[in-house]
Design goal:
Length: about 525
């Protein structure tokens, strides 16, 4: 196997691993790719009121099911003096409050904070979700004839189960009902009666269906009640239908609270029970919600990540994780564009200093320190000092220059210039020494070319490293380092012309063409 093939395989594996981890965090864990992505967090409060008779009291209340596309952040239960337990059964979760004796008005509260996620994969139907064979209801007398006639009419207008269900609901909700519809509805305005009528009519056709109660999530609403829907088993999956319009599918901002015909609220030892819902909406960062949910689920990729570190170390890594971006910029500028710099990765360190000092202030400080250092270094070269002593003297001179800038700026009230301490002293000293030697060997032109190239590369790296989206992606998706590494390995194989060389040779080509003419 040739070295180039080994490199391509390595790059493919590294790139695939990096992109795979990023996609996993985005689709499976819910991490957004934009720092501005936000989600609506809904706080729902259920208030249960009843009057106790002075006997032992047991209150049983159906709790909403935890579905893949809904995340429950927090659940609270409150009722002074009552014992509480949460019961789980195949029919669903229920909250149970109990008290030995109680009399008079009583109140119990249930509060839920939740948000919806983007569901990219359809959940698999489990054995518990499979419907039982529907029992055909027995309609009495004239109701049986009305049901048969209505079902025949609907059947003739439909081609499959979904259309049949939609047509049946639309017929029952017609503004001009015929005699059969009026007999079946029996002048009942109850939503529960209509729901069970639809379910019974569907069962007569051998179609499995059950009642679904849910809550429309509308901001700032109080004293709400649950809305009834009909869920029908069609083609291996459950499909939700609005029992008033016949529209299929789950509505937007709709929380399924209960599936099946079990009671919503049971009160033993009390009377005049009622329940009402209130809703409050807030907006939170999607990233913060995803981190909180992943930590609570103990997701391995998050449990062994930067988020598990103390806040101080996390802040340090926010800066460190920007370095691969700067390294990629340096590689592109040197290998593809052909910009010459003073030192290989000195521009990255300058860019880090510019982040702390702001762009314009940092450039002025950098030019001042390096320019002053070059003047003093030219004087030191006349003393014929050894290299170690000379570079040590330059370091001391740089420290003195930085201290002088800080003191003078403080006296003048220029606070921004006091950030000179963010520049790396050793790197500045080496830069001054390198440029001074370059001045002596190749002249001032090469010094300005390499110094300008270093500063230009540092400014470009600074612009990328301070981009809000890039800052967000590098910290929350550190797997990007693998993608950067793969790109740098690929660029390391490039041996063609650089952009600056193409520009230079273009001028030679024009002279050749002119000479031929």
């Amino acid at each position: 196997m040739s070295p180039k093939l080994r490199l391509y395989i390595l790059v493919f594996l590294i790139m695939g691993l990096g992109i795979g981890l990023i996609l996993y965090k985005h689709f499976a864990l819910g991490f957004p790719l934009s720092p501005d992505d936000k989600k609506s967090v809904w706080t729902i409060e259920a208030k249960i009121d009843f009057i106790a008779r002075g006997d032992p009291v047991i209150v049983s209340f159906a709790l909403p099911p935890q579905t893949p596309n809904v995340v429950f952040m927090e659940e609270d239960f409150a009722s002074p003096g009552y014992g509480f337990s949460e019961l789980t059964s195949p029919a669903g979760r229920r909250a149970q409050w109990s008290k030995r004796t109680a009399s008079g008005p009583q109140t119990a509260y249930y509060r839920l904070s939740m948000y919806e996620t983007d569901q990219f994969f359809q959940p698999l139907i489990t054995a518990a979700d499979l419907p039982a064979e529907p029992e055909k209801p027995e309609f009495d007398g004239v109701l049986k004839t009305a049901a048969i006639t209505l079902l025949d009419q609907v059947r003739n207008k439909s081609a499959n189960t979904e259309i049949f269900t939609r047509e049946l609901i639309s017929t029952l909700n017609s503004n001009t009902p015929d005699q059969n519809q009026r007999l079946l509805l029996n002048d009942q305005s109850s939503e529960d009666y209509k729901t069970h009528l639809i379910i019974n009519l569907l069962a007569s056709e051998g179609i499995s269906a059950h009642i679904v109660r849910g809550l429309y999530l509308n901001e700032g609403r109080k004293r709400l009640s649950l809305a009834n829907f009909v869920e029908v088993y069609i083609g291996g999956q459950w499909l939700l239908f609005n029992q008033n319009t016949g529209e299929s599918g789950k509505p937007k901002n709709f929380l399924v609270w209960q599936r099946g015909d079990q009671s919503l609220l049971d009160v033993i030892g009390g009377k005049n029970s009622k329940i009402s819902f209130s809703i409050i909406k807030s907006t939170q960062s999607t990233k913060n919600l995803a981190v909180r949910d992943s930590i609570s689920k103990q997701a391995g990729l998050i449990d062994f990540s930067i988020y598990s570190l103390p806040i101080e170390q996390q802040n340090a890594f926010k800066m460190i994780l920007l370095l691969p971006i700067g390294a990629l910029i340096v590689v592109i500028m040197r290998l593809l564009i052909g910009i010459r710099t003073s030192g290989t990765f000195m521009p990255i360190l300058i860019a880090l200093a510019l982040i702390q000092t702001t762009l314009l202030t940092g450039i002025i400080i950098f030019l001042t320190v390096v320019g002053t250092g070059l003047l003093i270094r030219s004087y030191l070269s006349r003393l014929n000092l050894l290299f170690v002593a000379r570079i040590s003297a330059v370091i001391i001179v740089v420290i003195a220059i930085m201290a002088s800038i800080s003191i003078i700026s403080n006296k003048l009230g220029i606070d921004q210039a006091m950030t000179v301490t963010f520049f790396p002293m050793i790197i500045l000293s080496w830069t001054i020494e390198r440029m001074s030697v370059l001045w002596e060997e190749d002249g001032p032109r090469e010094v300005f070319i390499q110094g300008g190239g270093s500063l230009l590369t540092a400014v470009i790296a600074y612009l990328f490293m301070t981009n809000r989206t890039i800052e967000y992606l590098t910290f929350n998706f550190p797997e990007l380092m693998l993608v950067n590494l793969a790109l740098i390995l690929i660029l390391g194989q490039y041996t063609g012309y650089r952009l600056s060389e193409l520009y230079r040779f273009h001028a030679l080509e024009r002279r050749d063409v002119t000479g031929k003419r």
